[in-house]
Write a structure and sequence with these properties.
There is one protein chain. By secondary structure, the chain is mainly alpha-helical. The protein has ten helices and three strands. The radius of gyration is 30 Å and the shape is extended.
């Protein structure tokens, strides 16, 4: 049985510690989602494996109990925003690890532009500055249901409620990232065209300034002759 005070592991570690492809993917996820340790990735992957293993067993089963469990699983995943309401049990197998990571409180706080960086979003949550509804949540890995997503806000009494707080000012880089890629490309191409026009004008102005300076030299040569 074990002691009830001792917390059990909520994830399963990789089978092999040294796998280059897996290590590189984990490093990318750590940078993209501002994670502190790799066990957070393993925790989300174990949750995903639990969902997919249940779906595999329920696809083949054809009993009344399996139908109930199938509907319960689909309702749970749709409430978390991982699948659509009209999705089938086979759609659960197409879920990826990034789909689960996108439903974490830390990523949603950053996507709502309530923090400058993904790491700052983690800092706000850990320091009890964020609330979902009326509850303060200090776990960055909390999976936010769709019904609670609009209730993400700064906790009452927090200094970050003020929109003019310096830590809430959105950088220009974030605004550029929010724009579609086509608009960003058009703006860059327009800037390059303007730079080329200015570069062409500069040598023409230099030649105009140099041309009158050559005439007095010819006059000096004639005087000397």
């Amino acid at each position: 049985m074990g002691s009830p005070k001792k917390q059990r592991k909520k994830f399963s570690a990789p089978s092999h510690p040294w796998q280059k492809e897996r290590i590189l993917k984990e490093q990318e996820l750590v940078r993209e989602y501002g994670l502190k340790r790799k066990y957070e990735i393993w925790k989300m992957s174990s949750i995903l494996k639990n969902f997919t293993s249940q779906a595999k067993n329920l696809i083949t089963a054809k009993t009344t109990q399996s139908e109930k469990e199938r509907s319960q699983l689909l309702k749970k995943l749709s409430s978390l925003g991982l699948i659509n309401q009209n999705a089938k049990i086979e759609d659960v197998l197409s879920l990826t690890l990034k789909d689960v990571m996108e439903r974490r409180l830390q990523t949603l706080l950053y996507r709502k532009h309530m923090a400058r960086t993904i790491k700052q979003a983690r800092q706000f949550i850990v320091h009890q500055q964020v609330a979902v509804g009326d509850k303060k949540i200090t776990a960055p890995s909390y999976l936010v249901p769709l019904t609670e997503e609009n209730g993400i806000q700064f906790a009452p009494g927090s200094a970050f409620i003020d929109t003019n707080h310096p830590e809430r000012i959105v950088d220009e880089k974030k605004e550029i990232a929010a724009k579609p890629k086509a608009e960003v490309k058009k703006e860059k191409s327009a800037e390059k065209a303007e730079d080329k026009k200015e570069a062409k004008k500069k040598p023409q102005e230099k030649t105009k300034k140099k041309s009158p300076a050559k005439e007095p030299r010819k006059e000096n040569k004639q005087k000397g002759s």
